[in-house]
Each structure stands twice: as C-alpha cells, then as structure tokens.
Amino acid sequence: YEAKRTPGLSVQAYRNAGHQGHERLLKIEHKLGDAVLDGKIVPFFQPMVDSQTLQVAGVECLARWQDEDMGTIYPDEFIPLAEATGLIVDLGYQILDKALEVGSRLNANEGVEVYFSVNISPIQLFEEAFVGNVEQLIKHHQFPVHLLKLEVTESLFMGGDIQARETLMRLRKLGVQIALDDFGTGYAALAVLRDACLDVLKIDKSFVSAMTPGNLDQILVKQIVEMAHAMNLKVVAEGVETQEHQDFLQSIGCDYSQGYLWSRPVAEATFCGWLRDKMGAER
Ligand code: C2E
Ligand code: MG
Ligand code: MG
Ligand code: MG
C-alpha cells in the first residue's frame, strides 16, 4: 500500500491525517484514478465579496467529487492522495479547464467581470509544461487573463527552491495573478512574503472564523491586512462566517471577504443562477 507510491510524497501523512476509517480510504484510493479519467471531479464555486461595496468580486473554484455510492467526497480526502500518486497533474488541468470555460461563458454572455481563483498544488507548478499549458487553456477559452488568479501555498517554497519563484514570475508575465493561500499557517511566512512575487494574500480561515471582539485573532487579522497593504498586496479573508466578522473586516479595510456568510461552495448551475439573480438585483 505504501511502497508503490512516488517516493518523497507522503501517502503515510495522508493515512495519518485522521480520515474516517480505513475502508472508506481504500475505496477512495481504489476509485480515484477512474474518477479523474472519467471527469467525475469538478469545481464547485464559492463567491468572494468586495468587503467595502459588498458586490461579488471573484469566485474560488473548489474541487468536488460526486460518487454514486459514497456521495460527495471533499478535497481534503482526495487532493493529498492525488498529489501522492501524480494524478493531481491531470486533475488540476481539468479543474482549470472547467473554471475557464465557466468564466469565459459568464464573461462573454452576461458581462460578468469577476476573478476566477483556482488552487494549484506545488506538484503542478513543478511540471515542466505548466506555464505553457496554462497559457494555451486561457487562449483556448478566450478567458480574460487579468481575471485569473492562481492560489498557491507556502509549502511551495519549502527548501528555498528558486524554481517556484521563476514559475510564478512567468505566470505573472502572462497576466495571471498569484495569491498566497492559507497565510499564517505555513512555515517561513515572512521570507516567502518578501521573496515570492505575489498579488494577493489570503488570510487562513482559522484566524478569521475565530475572531471575536478584541481577541488575539482579531488583532492578528488587522495586523496582517496592514502589513499586506504596505506591501501592495490585496487581502482576502477566508472563513467569514458571521456578520460580526464582516463588519470588522470592513472596518479595517480588508479587500475581499469569502465564507459561509455569503455562500458555501455550490455546483456550477447553482452558482450561475445565484450570480445572475445577484447581478440583476444590483443593476
Ligand atoms: P482552500 O483553498 O484554503 O479553500 C478554502 C476552504 O475553506 C474550502 O474547503 C472551503 O469550502 C472552506 N470554506 C469556505 N468558507 C468557509 C467558512 O466560512 N468556514 C469554514 N469552516 N470553511 C470555509 P474545501 O472546498 O473542502 O477545500 C479544502 C482545500 O482543498 C482547499 O483549501 C485547497 O487547499 C484544496 N483544494 C480544493 N480544490 C482544489 C483543487 O482543485 N486543486 C488543489 N490543488 N487543491 C484544491
Ligand atoms: Mg484556495
Ligand atoms: Mg485557504
Ligand atoms: Mg486550506
């Protein structure tokens, strides 16, 4: 079970991560290859709202696997496994392809000008052809490149590799924006901020959803926003669950707000309907 995997990538870590039962895990592992081949894993969509105007400014694409007998399977259960097996490369292109397709359609047909944010695993970024393939997909869908954001995590920079930075620079040359996801939970956070070329900082939801008046999480969030702005980065707060969170984020000038307060990640049709209603109401 462990031995056949790509060396250096941790199936063991995945197994240890507290997943529900060995049986479910084995099933997921058994089915993942076919699910990717058959295109069963698709993006769901969660809006990001401009904290000041409260209008929809962007959307994050989050992978969901709808299985006939297991129901919805969430990324925490299959992304680490997809990374450990290399399937993440194919899966990642599928998610990006679908995101750009939906984004292009909304943009062309309904004049929707919102960011599409797609999560990228380090393994994808280190693939030789990645930047070229991203460029092709953007062209193929005629997606407005300035509306594409790729979300990476600090783990990308572990080991002080300069290749990651170069790849990000090439992506930015295309006009793609780079967001650092889950900020505050990783390692060497400040060195990454200093050296990586970034456009957006996403504050990890563990800080945001824990904010209460005057507590340490609130103080940290406020300081992160200030620091990010001083570095010319836009800031997204993820995990915004209550109106109190939102009011605070607005008061400190946080740029974007994402969380269950606005919407859970929903399927394509639901999202497009929701957006249509919302935009109709705003016009
Ligand atoms: P992430 O990129 O940090 O995405 C945010 C996660 O927080 C999502 O979990 C989202 O559903 C959840 N979330 C959003 N608002 C709230 C809230 O108000 N409260 C709480 N408690 N949670 C909220 P999800 O969809 O389960 O995804 C988990 C992680 O899996 C993502 O974290 C991302 O790292 C990874 N992931 C998801 N889709 C992809 C993908 O297509 N490719 C790659 N490489 N990774 C993905
Ligand atoms: Mg993300
Ligand atoms: Mg995040
Ligand atoms: Mg996360």
UniProtKB/TrEMBL annotation:
Q: According to the lineage, what is the superkingdom?
A: Bacteria
Q: Where is the EAL domain?
A: 25-279
The residue range of the signal peptide is none
The name under which this protein is listed is Two-component system response regulator
